[in-house]
Amino acid sequence: MRRNSIPEGSEVLPPPGSSTGQEPRLWMRGIxxxxxxxxxxxxxxxxxxxxxxxxxxxDNGAGKSTxxxxxxxxxxxxxxxxxxxxxxxKIISPQVATRLGIEMVYQDLALCDNLDVVSNLFLxxxxxxxxxxxxxxxxxxxxxxxxRTLDVKIPSIRAIVSxxxxxQRQSIAVAKTILRQAKIVLLDEPTAALGVAQTRQVLNLIxxxxxxxxxxxxxxxxxxxxxxxxxxxxxxRLGRRAGTFDVKTTTTQQIVAAMTGAEFGEIMQSETTDxxxxxxxNES
Amino acid sequence: MSEIFRQQLPQESTTTTSTVEVLDNTQRWTLRxxxxxxxxxxxxxxxxxxxxxxxxxxxxxxxxxxxxxxxLLQQIITxxxxxxxxSLVLLLGEIDLSVxxxxxxxxxVMGVLxxxxxxxxxxxxxxxxxxxxxxxxxxxxxIAVLRVPSFIVTLAASIAYAGLLLNLLAGQxxxxxxxxxxxxIAGSPLSFLPDIVGVxxxxxxxxxxxxxxxxxxxxxxxxxxxxxxxxxLIIQVVIxxxxxxxxxxxxxxxxxxxxxxYLGVPNSAAILFGLILLIWLALKKTRFGRYxxxxxxxxxxxxxxxxxxxxxxxxxxxxCSTLAAIGGMLAASRANAVASQISPTLLLDAIAAAVIGGxxxxxxxxxxxxxxxxxxxxxxxxNGLDLRSQGSDVKQMIEGAVLLFAVTIDALxxxxxxxxxxxx
Lengths: 284, 424
Hints:
heterodimer; A: alpha/beta; Rossmann fold; 2 domains; globular; B: mainly alpha; ABC transporter involved in vitamin B12 uptake, BtuC; 72% helix
């Protein structure tokens, strides 16, 4: 696997479509999705590269979750094309997304509180022995290896998940995606409802995911966290992509402005959004 | 994979993460942990001991006589088998109120086929099992596919099957079963295992269990995984061995009807413990079992993990009703008859046995072995009160109180745990 060895916090990936020749891990064009009369996504473009953390921000109802669902397969898009590693794909169900290496960590984490850490890590894809029984030892070993490489600290890999802290639970949910051989990880509000130390823990975890050359998308309301961990920030507003910002050269104010529509300033990638601008929005 | 992770992190973040808990492989068994995880059944066990002491004293030792213990064991079979089915459904966080109706219906089908239509006993039993499985499938379809609350579906099923079995019996209140194959299972002097099987089979299982634990311990140590202390392992094996072999000794020394003969292990007890063992293995060692607990703990998470939640629910309701059918047919075999009257207390007894034993009503927690403790408590109360010649009035009042007590303890323990988790 290829890895960018770039100093932390100032990593800048080549802008999309630049001459580096790097292909986006995930590339989406013209994604449109309507719920009856409401157009939740209107011709949205989206791309994320390997070894990159993209922050997806926007006000409530901007279409962040809808866009994530079109990627994770939970709510396929009505229109638009998607490519994963340059191959055109149709993500029609979560199973398809999983097969493509796309994993979503939901805000509610989708952990079984009554099961222990190993059981949760391997839920749905348990390792089995030659006799078809659960291979607990292999699962424990692999689980421990992943938790160690992600530097996740828990009292025991056999601890029941309900006894763990919020940050630990988030880490378990993320480690689960690694065990599933994810190439693209979508994180929904990973730092919501976490304390300061635990937030830091999770942000470090996200950096380690990037270090593993994964494409990471972080949806968050917390701009401070997004700024700390993301390389690029994509702003959605009223179902459209309102701008793309390089965190290194952007201020929070500019992003807030884009989120709220106060001004469409400092758009990094004009070609990704401008062509859609004239369309009539049917929001409101 | 690990070299990919050797990425330089900013100084401040590495220092903050290294202060949180450390994942280690050393053994750390605290007393509290031990009491909570391994001795969670302690209150139930103490209750059983208290009941036993009380009845032993008040019946001048008759309660603990070998004959009565053998009798008690045979009395709890139906509660145990039907409670086992209920436990599975409770693990999913659902309920099945139709177990007794389904069990009685299966027994009636078996009885009618063998007595009135001359079907051989074993074919009648298979038909009874089939009826149970079909009833469970119907329950499962409404609950898992159509998402009708299980409480309503199984209540309706219970009423409908009660009517159906009246219809099948065509007005006959009690149908005596004569088929030797059926009565030989649990209702004749022959319904006991030969000594060699009665002693040998459990001992073999016990040895296999101990060997599996030791092999597991060695393999874990070799691969550097966390192991339990040797003392803990030895205590566990010894306790299980004492319980199993002690029970067998008592049963083998139970005097038979003719002087000089001994009864041995009842077939029905072997069936109950065999079923518990099989289901325990399925729950602990297979994907299916893991999924049952996962669905009971968080059905949405299970669904997202790609688990076929509907299939799991269907399978469990089918299994539950099949077990209920086995329970019903064992009861019929023991009584040498099938009755149109459905036992009014059996359903609550079966549910109570599961809950008293520690299967949570809220899903996902508990072990099927606890059904033995629960059934023993219910059975001991019934048996002891019978010995003291108490009527069903007193029995029902006491059983109701014990059930309420057990469920209250369950709720309080959950509450305390939730509180502790919130404090973290």
